[in-house]
Amino acid sequence: MSADAAELRALTQEFLAAHPPATTPREEFLRARFDAGLAWVHYPQGLGGLDAPRSLQAVVDAELTAAGAPDNDPRRNGIGLGMAAPTILRYGTEEQKKRFLKPLWTGEEVWCQLFSEPGAGSDLAALGTRAVLDGDTWTVDGQKVWTSGAHNARFAILIARTDPDVPKHKGITYFVCDMTDPGVDVRPLRQITGEAEFNEVFLTGVKIPDAHRLGEIGDGWKVAQTTLNNERVAIGGARIPREGGLIGLAAKTWRERPELRTQDLHQRLVKLWVEAEVARLTGERLRQQLVAGQPGPEGAGMKLGFARLNQEISGLEVELLGEEGLLYDDWTLRRPELVDFEGREAGYRYLRAKGNSIEGGTSEILLNIVAERVLGLPPEPRTDKDVAWKDLSR
What we know:
11 helices
């Protein structure tokens, strides 16, 4: 089935007539929307979509927004929606797709990502968490770190080493891990903001059925590339209106507080406003490219720009506010469900933005990706590519 904009608009209106947002319970509405194929229209029928072009999602969303329909609170489950779902769609079995995609999309099951480790962050392929197969069950032991939202997650996407006798990129396998299983220990990592949205996760004898493996044994690095490419697009390429995000907050302060203005700050604000608009339009172009296929390394460039802009804009906002910018509301340790840049004060935004150049791939590694895979520059020498993981220095 394929649908044009008019057909999708009519289908959405029919759905709204049958499920009035004002009287239909939220979860019932979201489940029905998924079943109607209006969750993500470019997904297959039966999996929340209609096999329609990705670009037509905006038609559905506009109709639903105008009717006051509830959304699935995407910020709360960004890892599930932006990273786990496209990976499951591409590499999952039919049973896995049917089991995981619907409660993931409705937000009934939140997901997290068990990739980074204390000794394998930027060099992710050096990870040491082990998974050993016994019959049809894997036993996993290891430690993961910087796990956003693990304290709220039901499931995790996990990569672990299943063969230490081959080079590091070849001995990795990709799994779905149930965060409620015995042996999963989630501990908070307090950040510079005072909050602990990040966690460290200890895995001790965790049992994962082979039915929860995504892709072939040893193909985990290839599967993970789908996740990582989608992650960078999700972080750096989110659709926002003009003057959306942090630049809108800084511009609002500028307009409402003329007594704070200086010529230097004005020049910096204008420069950052232009760069933010260029980034927004570049994101639109990237999303148009996604209509034709899977995200590629270009998403790394978007994520790079997002991190730099957030840090520069939040720094400008603190300077603009002067002494007010030094105020901070609450250092109490909290474990939030989502990152709320716009709902907190300038001091929080300034501190939290420091993590943007680390999470989702450090800026240094993303620069390498852009240089090698986008610009085609010669890669850096890598002497460990053909050495068995067990023989690497650690």
